[in-house]
Structures are given as C-alpha cells and as structure tokens.
Amino acid sequence: MNNQEKRPPLRIINSVAPIRICDNGGWTDTWFAGHGKIFNIGVYPYAEVQIEVFPRADQAESERIIIFAENYGERYAVRPETGVWDRHPLLEAAIERMGVPRDLAIQVTIFSEAPAGASTGTSAAVTVALVGALDCLSPGRLTAHEAAYMAHSIEVDSLKRQSGIQDQLCSAYGGINYMEMFEYPHASVSQIEVPNSVWWELERRLVLIYLGKSHDSSSVHEKVIAGLENAGGDCQQLTDLRVTAERSRDAVYSGDFAALGRAMTANTEAQERLHPELVSLHARRVIEIAREYGALGWKVNGAGGEGGSLTLLCNSISSAKRSMIREIEQEDSLFKNIPVYLSRHGLRVWERDRKEEF
Questions:
Q1: 71 in a domain, yes or no?
Q2: Which of 23, 63, 150, 282 is most enclosed, with most CB atoms within 10 A?
C-alpha cells in the first residue's frame, strides 16, 4: 500500500461523461471529410473518473501520480514528464497534457461499465471526464466544449491517432445532438430538445447490442480512409452519410420513429458501401434477428468492422423487444445487451472537502 492510501485525501474530485450510440453521419467528422454532419445520442453507462488529491509532502517522485484502471485491475505509477506512455497511453498522455501541480500528489481511478472497444466512444468519454477532473487541479476552468477539443487534441496531436470529433463532443454535451463540422475540426453542436413523451419513448425503444469482442479497425479502416482521402470531401460516399444525419435530426424533432429507423438503416448501408467488411457477419446476424422482430432500424456503431456493437430501434411493442434481446443473446454466448438510458447531461464535474468522513 502506498502512502496515498494510508492517509485521507485533501479533496476528492468526481467526473462523469456519457458514451455515444447511433452516430449517423459518422466518417464525415474527420480530417479527410473536411466538413460533416453528424447525429448521435449520449447515453448511460457513463465513464467515471475520481481523483483523490493528497499533499506532495514526502511522497516519492516515482509515486506522486497513480493511475487505477479499475476495469483492468491495474494500479501503477506514471511519470508523465518522461513522455513514455505505454500501459494506457490515452490516460497517461492526458495527465501529461493537463499537468498536476508540483505541490500535489494524486490517485486517479477510471471506471466504465461499457465494454472497451464497443465502438460507443468509450475512450473519448473517459478522456473528456479525465480532462474535466484534472482541470480542477489548477486555476481556471475549461468549458465542456473546450474539454471536448482538449480530449480530441490529446488523441490526435499527442498520440497521432485517427479520430473524428463527434465522440468527444457527444460526451461533453450529452443528450441528442446534431453537429455540423464546418471545417475540420471546428463544429457547432445543436442539442435536439423534444417533449418528454418523445424522449421516454425513444429511450424505451433503443437497444445496444455488444458483439462480444473489442472493435478491431486497423486494416479495413486504413483501406477506407485511403479511398476517401483520394475521393475528396464531397464524394458521393460521404454525401450519403451526411444525409442520414439530417434525416435523423428531422425524424426526432417530429417524433417519427419509423423515419429515424430508416435513417439508421440507410447509414449502415452507406457504411457497407464504403467497404463490405465494415458490417461484420456477426452484425448481419443480429440485424436479421432484429428484422424478424419488427425492429424499425439498426446502426453499426462507430466506423464499423469486426467486433463493436449495434444500436437497434424497436417497434412499439415492448414484449417484442424483450423477445428479440433474448434470441440475440441465445444466438451467440458473446452477444450481450447493454442497458442504456438517455443522458440529459454531458460532462459533469464536482467535488467537496471530505476529510471529515475519514
């Protein structure tokens, strides 16, 4: 047990950020698209971050910053100033970018009930929540929008990864969103406000099915990116995807779930036209079952490919939804329904002095 665990913290900072499903218009929020239109929905389960703050005191430099990646059962010390990010690079790079005041020591706990690699923007949600929590260690406060772009910059600039902007923005804002990226990476976010009856009905009809293994995007995605880069931002493939975002926005505003389902299905078909392997065999089987139970639409989450997850939009009969979920989970032991609830809030950060509780 290190010294941080032997004494009560000075402060405890908490933050949460929602994951993202039903990202119609995805692929158009990228550098090679140039401009884009994206619809998505922020949902629970959240990514959760908690920072316990201790006085630097006599804490050894090598133990000043501790990461507890709870989902992985890993607790380890990091030296972000070395620039070596090897165990959980996104977490370590975020700590390096945000900085920890020299007079403090911290333990950062990260947890999410959403499976890693589910293509629901979990890593973006974790980074947004971590940026928001770390921001409390220093004077000044980032807005939610700024936290999203900081998280995006950490992934793209610090780690040199491919990343669109929609996942971070959805985690920052929550709710049902329509985004217009007018010039990469700059985008406006319009939150879609609907009556409670529409909100609750949409929440009741949505199903998130995890396909049982982490999303693997490497080879197929590189082929797609190479093709889209050469085709230009206004090519038909990207135009087809942008249209589904507009249709999704209009469908939700009007409470037309059949139209939303058609937009979801059209987006998945447009993904498949980018490359047939973006809709995997497992995803196709889940879609077949969903169709048998009268689902109105389906969206392969994220960019598609092996693993990951699907968002399904069910019809009005609740018993059909439950029967569908049972058959999907019986079809393959790896398939899993992940209960989701629409998140009315995006990034949330709070703290209080809790020394009296220890």
A1: yes
A2: 23
β-pair partners for 69:
74, 110
Residue 292 lies in a domain: yes
Residue found by looking up tokens 């995805």 in the block? 26
> 293: which residues sit within 8 A by CB, 6+ positions away?
314, 315, 320, 321, 323, 324, 327
Cα–Cα separations (whole angstroms), residue 357 to 9, 11, 203: 10, 11, 37
Q: Model pTM?
A: 0.94
Distance between the two ends of the chain, CA-based, in angstroms? 17
CB atoms within 10 A of CB 339: 12
Asked whether residue 357 is assigned to any structural domain, the reply reads: no
* Per-residue confidence (pLDDT) for residue 229, from 0 to 100: 87
The bridge status of strand 36-55 relative to strand 11-24 is antiparallel
Count of domains in the chain?
Answer: 1
- Say which residues have a Cβ less than 8 Å from residue 141's Cβ, sequence separation at least 6: 135
What CATH number corresponds to the domain at position 180?
Answer: 3.30.230.120
Residues comprising the chain, all counted = 358
Q: Range of 329's domain? A: 3-352
Q: How far apart are CA 22 and CA 139, in angstroms?
A: 36
pLDDT at 1: 41
Residues 6+ apart with CB under 8 A from 162: 30, 156, 221, 225
Q: Is residue 239 part of a domain?
A: yes
Closest C-alpha to 246, from 97, 39, 67: 39
Write out residues in the chain with pLDDT < 70, as ranges.
Answer: 1-6, 58-59, 215-218, 353-358
Neighbours of 76 (CB within 10 A): 12
The pLDDT assigned to 313 comes to 98
Contact by Cβ (8 Å): 118, 215: yes
Contacts of 265 (CB under 8 A, 6+ apart): 297, 298, 299
